[in-house]
């Protein structure tokens, strides 16, 4: 079973919840992991099973980056808020870098997340 990581900055939590809710049937076929707050919201608001790691600022982005580097994550959907400053920016960039190094699909906005999820080539 393929694994998808779901992460969203605070200003984008509503966006990822809408995305997950709109794609609930499809996402239910995958192992879902998330940073703490995003995962908790998905569990509570959408009802999908999600394994939660630490919150992003507490090291969750780095935990997920380690999973990507160890080939335990097949895609990362990280809905970023480009208009807000983030004190854990190095972890965010580290996760994105690891996705690029290991050729793991990475979406930083909903449009790209939709493309990844609808990709028949990737998610067979």
Please describe what this structure looks like.
- Helices cover 45% and strands 15% of the residues.
- The model has no long low-confidence stretch (mean pLDDT 92).
- By secondary structure, it is α/β, with parallel strands linked by helices.
- The relative contact order is 0.20.
- The protein has one domain (3-118): Rossmann fold.
- It contains 6 helices and 5 strands.
- Strands 3-2-1-4-5 form a 5-stranded parallel β-sheet, sandwiched between helices.
- α1 crosses α3 (36-45) and α4 runs parallel beside α5.
- The chain has helices spanning 13-22, 24-27, 36-45, 60-69, 89-101, 110-118; strands spanning 3-8, 31-34, 51-52, 75-79, 106-107.
- The longest helix is centred in the last third of the chain and has 13 residues, at 89-101.
Walk me through the topology:
Blueprint: E1 3-8, H1 13-22, H2 24-27, E2 31-34, H3 36-45, E3 51-52, H4 60-69, E4 75-79, H5 89-101, E5 106-107, H6 110-118
Parallel strand pairs: 1-2, 1-4, 2-3, 4-5
Helix pairs in contact: 1-3, 4-5
Note the overall shape. Answer: globular
Query: Regions with pLDDT < 50 over 5+ consecutive residues?
Result: none
SS-derived structural category: alpha/beta
Strand order of the largest sheet: 3-2-1-4-5
Radius of gyration: 13 Å
By CATH, the topology is Rossmann fold
CATH superfamily: Methylglyoxal synthase-like domain
The succession of helices and strands, N to C, reads EHHEHEHEHEH
User: Which architecture does the CATH hierarchy give at level 2?
Assistant: 3-Layer(aba) Sandwich
Question: What is the name of the CATH class?
Answer: Alpha Beta
Give the integer mean of the pLDDT values: 92
Query: Roughly how many Å apart are the termini?
Result: 10 Å
> How helical, in percent, are the residues?
40-55%
Strand content: 15-25%
Number of strands: 5
Tally of helical runs: 6
The major β-sheet equals: 5 strands, parallel
Summed up, the domain count is 1
């Amino acid at each position: 079973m393929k694994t998808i990581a779901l992460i969203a900055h605070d200003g984008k939590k509503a966006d990822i919840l809408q995305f997950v809710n709109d794609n609930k049937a499809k996402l239910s076929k995958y192992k879902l992991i998330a940073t703490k707050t995003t995962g908790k919201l998905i569990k509570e608001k959408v009802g999908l099973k999600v394994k939660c790691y630490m919150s992003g600022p507490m090291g969750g982005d780095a935990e997920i980056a380690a999973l990507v580097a160890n080939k335990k994550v097949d895609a990362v959907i990280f809905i970023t808020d480009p208009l807000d400053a983030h004190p854990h920016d190095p972890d965010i960039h580290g996760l994105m870098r690891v996705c690029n190094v290991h050729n793991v699909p990475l979406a930083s906005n909903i449009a790209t997340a939709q493309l990844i999820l609808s990709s028949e080539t990737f998610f067979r």
